[in-house]
Structure formats: structure tokens, C-alpha cells
Design brief:
The complex is a heterodimer of chains A (about 270) and B (about 210). By secondary structure, chain A is mainly α. Chain A is built from 12 helices and no strands. Chain A has 2 domains: about 30-130, no CATH class; about 150-240, no CATH class. Chain A is flat. Mean pLDDT of chain A is about 80; it is low at about 110-115 and about 245-270. Chain B has about 210 residues and is α+β, with helices and mostly antiparallel strands. Chain B has 7 helices and 9 strands, in the order αααααααβββββββββ. The longest helix of chain B has about 30 residues, at about 90-120. Chain B is flat. Mean pLDDT of chain B is about 75; it is low at about 55-85. Classes of the chains: A mainly alpha (about 270), B alpha+beta (about 210). At the A-B interface, α1, α4, α5, α6 and α8 of A face α1, α3, α4, α7 and β1 of B.
Chain lengths: ~270, ~210
């Protein structure tokens, strides 16, 4: 390449990269100041601004994205919480997000040239699982199991979500939770379908099946054999109803009672 | 069980494994389950999930993929047909500036889009999510969550005249959301249908939804 051409290309490249860096720096900006400026509800918390600044500063030192905290500021302001409760909740959030950051770092999520840390979305999601009570180690092991696998990142996060939903309706031990999560990641099922495990469990419970039966025989066993939700559904339906849900009506020909929904799983939200 | 039912069994199994994501197969399952008592009984529970997968409303899903072979052939064909011109001296001088600049801009755009993709993740398709809540004595019900910056009174539910309120919102597949209903602009309540709930840290409870 001639020197004259090289001499022209280099400044152009440098200029472009400087523009890119300036844009990235500007996008980080001062999130807290922006929130005070743009959200009318922020006026209630003017007296707590110094404390909130300290919290944001502490979060910044731990590489926690300020946007995650402003999301929580918006939630607290919408719910009109007092200033001391707002600052208390944000301090707790920084602690949770710091744990989340350590977990995703250990799991190797987001570790590439363009995204050296976990994305805001991943940190926020892991933070929600921690707030929901999932143990750090369980999340860490599931995320580690998903790293390095194609689509494993999404599967691992979805598996954590499915475990969170399942544990909300069933007392599933950590070891069983981990096994179910790992089986889900390895199952080849669509991650968006993982959440139906909680519905499967609910259906089984409505038919009088025991926790152990549902967790081990229906869920773990089916996933281990390469089956999915449809097979779990069939297993539950092929199990005789242990006890009627409603008192039998005094009719000449009594029929076994069915779950109130007609026995169907209803994920009520998703079309 | 007839042959169609067997095909439905296969289609559901493929869908579960993520192999049959084309709308035709999914609509085949849904339509057959409507007409067949056996399949409705066995797969009725999965229909909402399958229907959800037919509702990919965003065209961005395909944009993330590779260009079609037809597109590639078309581009290559155009390139082959293009005549090679001899540049004049002034054009060459202009090209010395324009080409590096164009290359730099292309590089900038490429890096920018990769960074953006890394930050946003690969999930770009949307899901239509239907929210309902029973509030017979309410005069106004709204939905707020991190999907709308917790702006109350932005997503107002419609009353169905039986005490039930409803709204359908497009949300991103693969994302997790926290949200609540706001009754009469005063009372925050979690979604009674949500599987998971969360202590919101403010003395209340939030619903959690992962798509």
C-alpha cells in the first residue's frame, strides 16, 4: 500500500474509533441525573439524592450497570415507596447484582471480545433468580453447564426460570432442581417450553399424585429418557386419580371428578 | 388412533425438540386437536404454547439469519454482469479518499451492529402475551412492569363486563419481566395467574414472567 494512501486511511480509522468510543461513553452517562431530569415522579426523592448517588457510585465500582438500578427506581417511584425504603431496596439490589455478577463471571457468560462482561439483561435475570430464592450455587452450576454449548446460554437461563417456577409450586430440593435443570438444558426442548414444568406439576397435584412421584417418576424420569412435556402429560393422565377433588354428587351413576379446568394445563398468559 | 393422530404425535414431538417450527406444522396440530377428541385430550394443554410459537409477529427473527441462497445468487449474478470500467485520473483520486472512508464507515457499522447484537442478545422475536385479572369492583385497572418502565396508566386493561379485565401486550421472547396490576390507580396487586412471585423489596410483591 502506498504511503500516501496509508497516511490517509490511518487518521480516518482513528477518527471512527474515537467516535465509537465517545458514543459508548455518552450512552453510559449519568443515569441517576437523567432519571431525576426526565421522570416527574423523581421529585419525591430529591432529599435522597446524595444517598442514591453513593449507591450508584458503589454499583459503578462493582461494574453493575446503572440502568438496572434506574429500572428499580422507576418501580419504586411508581409504587410511591418512601425514600428510606427506596434506598434500602437499592442497597439490597446492589448486593444481589454483585452476587449475580460473580455468578455469571464464573460461568463464563458474555466472555467474548465484543461483550467482555455479562449483558445487562443477563445480570438482571440472574438477579431476579437470586431474589426469588434460587441458591447461588444452583444458578452457577446450571449456567456453567450451558456455557460453551450452542444455544446453551439461553437454555441455561430458561432452565433457571423453569426451576424458579417449579419451586414456587413445589418443594423441590436443590439436588433435584439441579438434575432437572441439567436435563432440560440437554433435552433439546425449546427453552420457551421449559416453563410448562410447573403446569405439569400442578396438573399432577390436581390428580392427587405425590410430590416424589411427580418430581422423580414424571419429570426427571421422562427427561432422562429423552421425553418432553407431552409425555409427562400422558403419564399423568394415565395415572388413576388418587382421590376425588370434590365430594361425589349423589347421582345414580357417579363419574370420577375431573380437575376444575377440565384437566387441561392452562398457561393463562401466552397466546 | 388414526394415521392423522400419529402424524400429530410426530409433529408435537418434533415441536418439543424444536425441529418443527414452521407455522404449517403448528397450525396442523392446532386444527387437528380442535376436531379430534383424543388429540385434544392429550395435547390440549400444549396448544397455548404451540399457538404462541405460531405468533411470531416480528420479522426481525429472519433478519438475524443468513441471507437466502436466492439473494446470494442474485448479488453474484449482478456482479458477474457488471462491466469493468477503466477509471479516469480524477475518479482514481476521489477513490483514494472515498474507499478508505467507505471502508471505515462499513467497519464502524459492522462493529456497532455486532456490539448491539451482543448487548441485546439473539432473541428478537416477539410474543403476544394476554394478561387477565379479576377485579369486579374496580373502575380502572392498568398493567405496569419493567417492559414499560413501570409507567402506571399507560397500559390500561379493558373490562369484559364479568369483573374480568384483560390486555394483550407484545413482549420479547427469551426475556424475563417483573410486573404488577394497578387497581384504581392506588393498589398494586400481583398477577394471580403468574407462576412465580418476588418480594419487590418495597414491601410488596411482583409477578415474574419469563418467555
Amino acid at each position: 500500500m502506498p504511503d500516501t494512501v496509508r497516511a490517509r486511511i490511518v487518521p480516518v480509522f482513528v477518527l471512527c474509533f474515537l467516535m465509537l468510543a465517545a458514543g459508548a461513553a455518552a450512552s453510559r452517562g449519568d443515569e441517576l441525573a437523567e432519571w431525576y431530569r426526565s421522570d416527574p415522579r423523581a421529585a419525591t426523592y430529591v432529599g435522597a439524592r446524595d444517598e442514591l448517588s453513593r449507591i450508584f457510585s458503589q454499583a459503578g465500582q462493582q461494574h453493575i450497570p446503572a440502568a438496572l438500578l434506574t429500572d428499580r427506581l422507576r418501580e419504586g417511584a411508581a409504587k410511591r415507596v418512601p425514600a428510606d425504603r427506596m434506598t434500602g431496596a437499592l442497597r439490597a439490589d446492589v448486593e444481589v447484582l454483585s452476587r449475580a455478577s460473580r455468578i455469571v463471571s464464573r460461568a463464563g457468560l458474555g466472555g467474548n471480545l465484543l461483550s467482555p462482561g455479562a449483558s445487562d439483561e443477563e445480570l438482571r435475570e440472574v438477579g431476579i433468580y437470586l431474589r426469588a430464592g434460587l441458591p447461588d450455587r444452583l444458578i452457577s452450576e446450571l449456567l456453567s453447564g450451558g456455557s460453551g454449548v450452542r444455544g446453551g446460554r439461553e437454555s441455561a437461563l430458561a432452565a433457571c426460570g423453569a426451576i424458579m417456577d417449579l419451586r414456587a409450586v413445589a418443594p423441590v430440593e436443590d439436588a433435584d432442581s439441579l438434575q432437572i435443570g441439567r436435563l432440560l438444558i440437554a433435552s433439546g426442548m425449546q427453552p420457551s417450553g421449559y416453563s410448562s414444568l410447573a403446569l405439569v406439576y400442578g396438573l399432577g397435584m390436581s390428580r392427587g399424585m405425590s410430590r416424589d412421584n411427580l418430581v422423580h417418576d414424571v419429570i426427571i424420569n421422562t427427561l432422562s429418557m429423552g421425553g418432553g412435556v407431552a409425555i409427562m402429560n400422558q403419564k399423568i393422565r394415565s395415572t388413576p386419580i388418587a382421590q376425588p377433588l370434590s365430594p361425589p354428587k349423589p347421582a345414580p351413576r357417579a363419574r370420577p371428578s375431573r380437575p376444575p379446568s377440565g384437566g387441561h394445563l392452562h398457561p393463562p398468559h401466552q397466546n | 388412533m388414526n394415521e392423522t393422530c400419529r402424524r400429530v404425535d410426530d409433529a408435537v414431538t418434533s415441536w418439543e425438540r424444536g425441529e418443527a417450527s414452521d407455522s404449517q406444522s403448528l397450525f396442523f396440530i392446532i386444527n387437528h386437536a380442535r376436531a379430534c377428541a383424543r388429540c385434544e385430550r392429550v395435547y390440549g394443554a400444549l396448544i397455548p404454547l404451540i399457538r404462541r410459537d405460531t405468533g411470531q409477529s416480528s420479522g426481525l427473527g429472519s433478519a438475524a439469519g443468513e441471507p437466502s441462497s436466492g439473494f446470494t445468487d442474485s448479488v453474484l449474478g449482478t456482479a458477474e454482469r457488471r462491466k469493468v470500467h477503466r477509471f479516469s485520473g480524477s475518479v482514481m483520486r476521489t477513490a483514494r479518499w472515498v474507499l478508505p472512508l467507505a471502508g471505515s464507515v462499513a467497519l464502524l457499522l459492522g462493529v456497532g451492529s455486532l456490539v448491539l447484537q451482543a448487548r441485546l442478545g439473539s432473541q428478537s422475536s416477539e410474543v403476544m402475551v394476554h394478561f387477565t385479572v379479576e377485579a369486579p369492583s374496580a373502575s380502572q385497572v392498568s398493567l405496569a412492569g419493567d417492559f414499560n418502565g413501570w409507567r402506571p396508566n399507560e397500559l390500561n386493561l379493558k373490562s369484559l363486563n364479568n369483573g374480568v379485565w384483560e390486555i394483550t401486550v407484545a413482549l420479547r421472547r427469551g426475556a424475563i419481566y417483573t410486573y404488577d396490576f394497578l387497581i384504581d390507580g392506588e393498589q398494586w396487586v400481583p398477577d394471580p395467574h403468574s407462576e412465580s412471585r418476588l418480594d419487590d423489596g418495597f414491601g410488596g410483591v411482583s409477578s415474574v414472567l419469563r418467555l
